[in-house]
Amino acid sequence: MTTRVFLAGGVVFLAALFVTGYLCGFLWTPYQGHSSVTEIEVRKGDSFAAITKELSDKGVVAQWRPLVLWAQLRGVDKKVHPGLYRFEGSVAPASVLARLVDGRSVHFRVTIPEGLTVRQIADLLERQARVSAEKFVVATKNPALLDPLEVDSLEGYLFPATYKLPAVATEEEVVETLLATFERRFTREMEARGRVIGMTRHQVVTLASIIEKEGGPHGEWAMVSAVFHNRLKRGMRLQSDPTVIYGLENFDGNLTRRDLRTPTPYNTYRIAGLPPGPIANPGLAAINAALFPAAVDYLYFVSKNDGSHHFSGTLREHNKAVDRYQRNGRARSRRVASP
Questions:
Q1: Domain boundaries, the chain
Q2: What DSSP letter does each residue of 263-309 carry, written as one string?
Q3: More confident residue, 87 or 205
Q4: Residue range 14-24, pLDDT digits in tens
Q5: The pTM of the whole model exceeds 0.85
Q6: In contact, 136 and 145? CB cutoff 8 Å
Q7: What is the topology classification, in CATH, of domain 25-102?
Q8: Do 25-102 and 107-185 come out as alike in CATH topology?
Q9: Which of 9, 241, 289, 326 sits between 20 and 30 A of 28, alpha carbons compared?
Q10: Strands (DSSP E) along the chain, which ranges?
């Protein structure tokens, strides 16, 4: 009896030793049969067996069952992260498993510049990430996102920054990521400062978007902001060209006098006060400028065509500046009329 037990134990030991040796050889030996670039998409809810079967079918690993066995022994077969995974050349199965468990999936690094509209952001994401521009725009109209903000559009609330976006992220998830970044970056202190100057967050973001689109050196933005604040306080129209452009359906790049006379909700040559919402997605510099205007009494500014502006406190001074720069063909006014 003792001999039989001993023999049985020996067989089990040898079998375990064989399996361990086989697994070690399998797991840490790159599969030489794979030399190309292969991508697989792991979706939420996919079984590990199905994932490894696809890896085997596409030649990333020689066999799938040993990998399943090893993952189960380690208790990680249910810890794989969804994502798009890219495998290049020969990869050891152990490395394949580690990548799946660690979630080292393909990401797209995308920089969204300040001052883009929702549509422009959508087009950029379609070019640089696996995002449908049309689906992205539709996702920005989701009432579940709009209602808490009490707005009709997410224009202005998609924060410009550099993002690392998972390749399998849905358009809805990307929109939520950009919006969540805005919510973090627009701080409680900013909310409080807005109340001090008598502006809601929506008004601050709207003004910031106009400052962003007016351009010029960042060092001038507090003065640009002051011009708009001063005009708002006096009941003067803002007369901002970028707002007019935003309200035009088919702007061809040439702003005409007819455009300035065309009534739209965004034509600040025709309407009083701020337009109904932002005309772009501003960055922190523009938001801070909107919140902290310079202590100056300027009411006008004109482009000097060198990237900067000339500021004036009276219409007479402004007209002289306009005449100076326009006569020499170096600039055109951004503030050409009295209220």
A1: 25-102, 107-185, 188-327
A2: --TT-TTTSSSS-SS-SS---HHHHHHHHS--S----EEEE-SSS-E
A3: 205
A4: 444 445 555 55
A5: no
A6: no
A7: Dna Ligase; domain 1 (3.30.1490)
A8: yes
A9: 9
A10: 37-42, 83-88, 107-111, 162-166, 300-303, 309-312
